[in-house]
Amino acid sequence: MAPLGSILGRALSAVSHGSLYDLAMIEERWGEIVGEGLRAVSLPAELERKKLVIWVKEPVWADSMGYLKDEITGKINNALEKKVVDGIKVVYRRDFDRTRPSPPAAQEEPDTRLVSPETLLKIEEEAAKVEDSELREAIKRVMLKSVIANIDKKH
User: How many CB atoms lie within 10 A of CB 64?
Assistant: First the structure.
């Protein structure tokens, strides 16, 4: 079995998205970090160079969460037991409901119609090397979300 670091390194290069593992872990524990109320209206969307982008459902949540940036940063770093985040940007997303994953018990598959078969195969191959099934699924969701977001930006 290949070490997780090398698997994730190859996965990161396949989708050009830094800190994939950390973002997957943040997403997995998001309700614990911000509480179920804020989990329902927010989503950790991107993590690059220790800067976390959080999408929110309504503009008012962007303002509200803005006041909690330091607290959220501390909770993330404590939960992951390392300094993963040193800054947060909260962004209102009009299409939030379309991009928001369902709770883990009722997880829906991301819409992959615009993703090339080659990219889907790369994601599956890299994720298949992760033994933990929950982590594997979280990594696949984050990788697909990243690819889909990049496609959306181009259109």
Answer: 15
pLDDT tens-digit map of 41-77: 999 988 888 999 999 988 888 888 889 999 999 999 9
Single-letter residue type at 13:
S
CA–CA separation, 53 vs 27, rounded Å? 12
Q: Which amino acid is at 148?
A: I
Which candidate, 101, 102, 39, 28, places its Cα nearest to that of 68? 39
Specify the DSSP class assigned to residue 104: G
Structure tokens at 43: 């989503």
Nearest CA to 96 out of 55, 51, 136, 142 is that of 55
pTM: 0.56
d(CA 144, CA 44): 14
**N-term to C-term CA, the chain:** 39
Per-residue buried b or exposed e for 31-59, using 16+ beta carbons within 10 Å of the residue's own CB: eebbeeebbebbbbbbbeebebbbbbbee
Q: Considering only CA atoms, give the Rg of the chain.
A: 15
